[in-house]
Batch of 2 targets.
Target 1
Amino acid sequence: MQKRVNKIIDFLLQEISQSSESVQFDLDSISQRLLAEGYTEREIDKAVKWVIMNLGNQEILPHPKTVGKETPSIRILLPEEMRFFTKEAYGYLIQLQSLGVLNALQIEPVIERCFLMGGQAVDVEELRSIISQVLMEDRKDPSATNSVFSPGNDKIN
């Protein structure tokens, strides 16, 4: 199911980036198109919520004539790091950075996980899985812990 949700998120991000004005971005018609392609309402809802949560603080729809709008920084890979990605996966990584989905700090754990996957280059599907894991971990409360403190006991269980 997560792969299908990732594909919907990709589709939504492409639609958002291609829309020239926020008025023309019609979520109802996009939902109808996705339903016609066989996606469920639950999958669409989950993808839309993800996009809103991750892009909610930003201006979701880019305006091409906006003056002075900063473009996001893009992390360029070193030649040694390029071995971890197929050309398509690297292009996908650049696309997510340029859309503002991933920032420079989120790219580092993605690269590390691709390094840990072994000698084989990561393709787009594997990269989508890794990116969704990294983004979901970013949403967690950094102060949250699984440690249990017993009263009167200085040990962590």
Target 2
Amino acid sequence: MTGLGLPAVLLLSAGQEADVTYAPALLGAVPAEAEVEAVIADKGYDSKAVVAQVEAKGAEAVIPTLKTRAVQRAIDRERYKDRNLAERFWRRAKEFRRVATRYEKTARNFLAFVHLAAIMVLLR
């Protein structure tokens, strides 16, 4: 997401796969010339590899640590509150029935409608 709560990259994953497996692809899809101050994500993206990749880009990883970890990473709680921008984007995108209920049978067509919904959210 950009600072305005709009998506920078949209990738489609299988529903049964963990979010963290797609983190390297998401981070790699962000253009190198884009200045990234922070990457804000939920606990589903907590992994040492993801945090290292974010810090290698020169950004702050604002990802809460799982409760099961022995060492808890300190995060900026005020900055983490900005994650609601992503949640608000998905709420607006799911106002389109084809996105909310996934009418499309193929991944290609569903991702196309997600892109279309993202454009409609941007134009509002």
